[in-house]
Design brief:
transmembrane
């Protein structure tokens, strides 16, 4: 099969309403994870220990009655979203909107963004499966452990610095996308006041925290302190240090909750 034939097959799949509905099922899953992260951030602001990131959210799900079944549902939704993003990597953004997506030219940057999201969703889905199978490990511990191994060599430190820069840039773009309201281009409707407020607040808050996580990783690499490289959880807890830390954490929680609610809106209104 040639690459053009492969693109044609992918294009045919994205034209299926069933495939589109399955992909959309990932949006409410993403929304629930963000709402749980917001809840965990509030708990940390109140002085309760915990991990305010995706693994913390998955651990919260796992602890509930029927948690294993819920985790498999989460994994399915995330894999569905990842598969659609991989299709966008091949065909460009919103392939479901046209029948000849395999023939059109799409900017490389758009395809790279789609591929990056596919990797994120796949990683979260795999983590959800690990939790469902009983392999529980804190995300911050995993990040710090991997960073410690990479910091043993100059090449490893370079990888961490580049990774930190990428995360910081992604966070900056996310915040810009929210502040400029460019996320409205991803919707099939004009947006309206509620969706716009949720989208702006959610994108800016999550972008700011991601940027801080990236900068923390860069700092940890230069200082050879793997304990600083604890990902999203470490960035959230860093926001809590200082005179107005509690207030900042509450604002961050509201932002993540806003993005969670925005994700529910994407279930119906996202361009596919």
């Amino acid at each position: 099969m040639s690459y053009q034939d492969f693109k044609g097959a992918v294009n045919q799949a994205t034209g299926s309403r069933v495939v589109e509905y399955v992909a959309r099922s990932g949006y409410p899953v993403n929304g629930i994870l963000h709402l749980l992260i917001a809840y965990l951030i509030v708990r940390i602001a109140m002085g309760v220990s915990g991990e305010a990131d995706q693994t913390g959210a998955l651990a919260t799900i796992a602890a509930q009655r029927g948690g294993n079944i819920s985790l498999w549902i989460v994994a399915f939704g995330l894999f569905a979203l990842a598969a659609w993003r991989l299709a966008e990597t091949v065909l460009g953004l919103h392939p479901g909107e046209c029948t000849d997506a395999d023939e059109r030219h799409s900017p490389l940057l758009n395809k790279l963004k789609a591929f990056g999201l596919a990797l994120v969703y796949c990683a979260l889905a795999v983590t959800a499966i690990q939790f469902a199978l009983g392999a529980h490990r804190r995300g911050s511990e995993q990040a710090a452990g991997l960073s410690a191994r990479l910091m043993q060599s100059d090449a490893g430190k370079a990888v961490l610095v580049v990774t930190g820069i990428v995360i910081a840039v992604i966070g900056g773009y996310f915040a810009y996308k929210g502040a400029s309201r460019k996320f409205l281009d991803d919707l099939t409707v004009p947006g309206g006041r509620l969706i716009t407020v949720l989208g702006v607040s959610g994108h800016v808050a999550e972008g700011a925290v991601l940027s801080l996580a990236g900068l923390s990783l860069i700092a940890a690499s230069f200082l050879s302190e793997p304990a600083r490289a604890t990902g999203l959880d470490g960035a959230v807890k860093a926001l809590g240090h200082g005179e107005f830390g509690k207030t900042i954490l509450i604002v961050a929680a509201l932002g993540f909750a806003a993005y969670g609610l925005y994700s529910f809106a994407l279930t119906r209104y996202a361009r596919m």
